């Protein structure tokens, strides 16, 4: 059986208008799908150059398939369960920055290039003082981007009409503004000149954005069945739900160039996306991150299993209803309606969303998705939210890397994995060693943004829960909070 490529599926060729950092499942099931939709329904007429920003990724497979891949959308659409698939044709090619850095800079010289999108996880929009313009490539995504922008600036001699519309999709607050701040910081550090800085400010539009679509990714359990259905092999099949939302905090004129309003795509341009972001991140993403260590250690593997299970399902629903919604600065009815939709999406009959896929970079995810709810709850209620705390304790145990006799394949920055390995090496079976370990973990301001030992009672409750989970197992320990 042939592998998907342009010989199997005729591919439409479009001018390269978009640079995209990140070739993972989400961007292919969200941004690249939308651009494919724009090409079909409007005069957008543009394709995407995908950059693999880290050493190991999918661009080799993407190029082998001529940028083509199959997207399955499965879930509730207009009140009905719908399963449909299509071959996405919006990606022109992929670049590996470790080997294609010169070609990467050459892309900046393309006068038709106009948009830059990214999704480098919550940890991606970061600053590293050791990054240099002469690095090939720079360590950080903003460092790589600054070098690209400088190449663009030099090529077109600071022409303000050759700037970009930049829309990052990383799930952090004010992602566009934070990305711009780091780019300007590198411009200063690398002494690129005041004219370049002015060009960044005046010729480029950095938009913050919020994305929402559950993307389980590669359907490893059903790929044989899917391959038979398709009639070709596709190493990059990606599964996503039907629901999608993109809220962009930016000027209305962007729609003149990115004509989403001419389609049925659920894309909103707003002056302030804060209310949308808070509700989505804390309820949907927060529930994902909170359920993952609890449900996985309980012996479950997918989101649907976790929600359908009597114990873990009640844990997640009560966490949302009792510990997240009450402290949101939004109308309760609106929050509850969104939460009900989220639970419905978690129960999607077509999607097998693995908890281990969600567990990628869980420490930074807990810090951005769950810690704000925990702290707001303490400030408003003057007590600890026991389910959010229990989830934190379960997360600490998750990073021990064991589920019964099985090894958990943890996926996070190496320094985080080494830190937790060191902490667990101090555990001797005693409650005292748990307390000491928890104290050290909560004190790590690099991970949490503050010393969490300063939160009244948090250290002791995390230690209590962690000791119960470790010594009795999570199935017994969770009964504490039922």
Sheet with most strands: strand arrangement: 5-2-1-6-7-8
The CATH level-2 architecture of the largest domain is identified as 3-Layer(aba) Sandwich
Number of strands: 14
Low-confidence stretches: none
**Helix amount:** 40-55%
Report the span from N to C terminus: 52 Å
Rg over CA atoms, rounded to whole Å, is 23 Å
CATH class designation of the largest domain: Alpha Beta
- Tell me, what's the shape? globular
Question: At the third CATH level, what is the topology name of the largest domain?
Answer: Rossmann fold
Count of individual helical segments = 21
Mean pLDDT across all amino acids: 95
Strand proportion: 5-15%
Tell me the CATH superfamily of the largest domain. NAD(P)-binding Rossmann-like Domain
Number of domains: 2
Overall structural class, as computed from helix and strand content, comes to alpha/beta
Largest sheet: 6 strands, parallel
Explain this structure.
The structure is a single chain. The protein is α/β, with parallel strands linked by helices. It folds into 2 domains: 16-270, Rossmann fold; 274-481, Orthogonal Bundle (N-(1-d-carboxylethyl)-l-norvaline Dehydrogenase, domain 2), CATH 1.10.1040. 47% of the residues lie in helices and 14% in strands. It is built from 21 helices and 14 strands. The protein has helices spanning 25-29, 31-41, 59-64, 101-107, 141-155, 175-189, 194-203, 223-230, 254-257, 274-298, 303-308, 310-324, 332-346, 355-358, 362-381, 386-398, 414-424, 431-442, 445-448, 458-472, 474-477; strands at 16-21, 47-52, 69-77, 80-88, 91-96, 115-118, 165-168, 205-206, 208-212, 238-240, 245-249, 267-270, 402-403, 406-407. The strands form 4 sheets. It has a 6-stranded parallel sheet with strand order 5-2-1-6-7-8, with helices on both faces.
């Amino acid at each position: 059986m042939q592998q998907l490529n342009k010989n199997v599926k005729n591919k439409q060729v479009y001018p390269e208008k978009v640079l995209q950092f990140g070739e993972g499942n989400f961007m292919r099931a969200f941004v690249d799908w939308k651009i494919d939709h724009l090409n079909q329904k409007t005069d957008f007429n543009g394709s995407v150059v995908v950059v693999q920003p880290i050493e190991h990724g999918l661009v080799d497979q993407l190029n082998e398939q001529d940028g083509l891949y199959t997207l399955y959308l499965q879930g509730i659409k207009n009140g009905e369960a719908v399963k449909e698939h299509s071959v996405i044709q919006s990606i022109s090619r992929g670049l590996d920055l470790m080997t294609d850095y010169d070609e990467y800079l050459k892309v900046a010289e393309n006068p038709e290039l106009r948009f830059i999108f990214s999704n480098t996880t919550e940890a991606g929009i970061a600053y590293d003082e050791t990054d240099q313009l002469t690095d090939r490539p720079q360590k950080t995504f903003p460092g790589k981007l600054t070098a690209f922008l400088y190449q663009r600036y030099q090529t077109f001699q600071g022409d303000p009409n050759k700037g970009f519309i930049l829309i990052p999709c990383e799930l952090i607050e004010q992602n566009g503004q934070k990305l711009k701040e780091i780019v300007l910081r590198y411009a200063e550090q690398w002494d690129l000149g005041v004219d370049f800085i002015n060009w960044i400010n005046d010729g480029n539009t950095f938009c913050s954005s919020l994305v929402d679509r559950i993307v389980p990714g590669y359907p490893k359990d059903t790929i044989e069945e899917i391959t038979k259905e398709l009639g070709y092999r596709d190493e990059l099949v990606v599964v996503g739900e039907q629901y999608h939302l993109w809220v962009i905090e930016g000027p209305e004129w962007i729609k003149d160039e990115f004509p989403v309003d001419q389609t049925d795509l659920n894309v909103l341009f707003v002056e302030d996306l804060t209310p949308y972001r808070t509700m989505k991140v804390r309820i949907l993403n927060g529930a994902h991150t909170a359920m993952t260590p609890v449900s996985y250690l309980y012996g479950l593997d997918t989101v649907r299993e976790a929600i359908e299970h009597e114990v873990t399902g009640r844990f997640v629903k009560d966490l949302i209803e009792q510990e997240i919604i009450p402290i949101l600065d939004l109308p309760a009815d609106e929050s509850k309606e969104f939460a009900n939709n989220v639970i419905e999406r978690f129960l999607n009959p077509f999607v097998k969303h693995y908890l281990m896929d969600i567990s990628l970079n869980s420490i930074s995810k807990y810090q951005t998705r769950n810690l704000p709810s925990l702290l707001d709850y303490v400030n408003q209620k003057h007590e600890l939210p026991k389910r959010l705390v229990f989830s934190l304790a379960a997360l600490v145990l998750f990073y021990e890397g064991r589920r019964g006799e099985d090894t958990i394949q943890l996926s996070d920055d190496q320094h985080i994995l080494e830190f937790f390995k060191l902490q667990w090496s101090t555990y001797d079976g005693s409650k005292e060693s748990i307390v000491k370990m928890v104290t050290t973990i909560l004190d790590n301001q690099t991970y949490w943004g503050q010393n969490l030992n300063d939160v009244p009672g948090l250290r002791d409750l995390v230690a209590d829960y962690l000791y119960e989970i470790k010594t009795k197992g999570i199935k017994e320990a969770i009964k504490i909070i039922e």
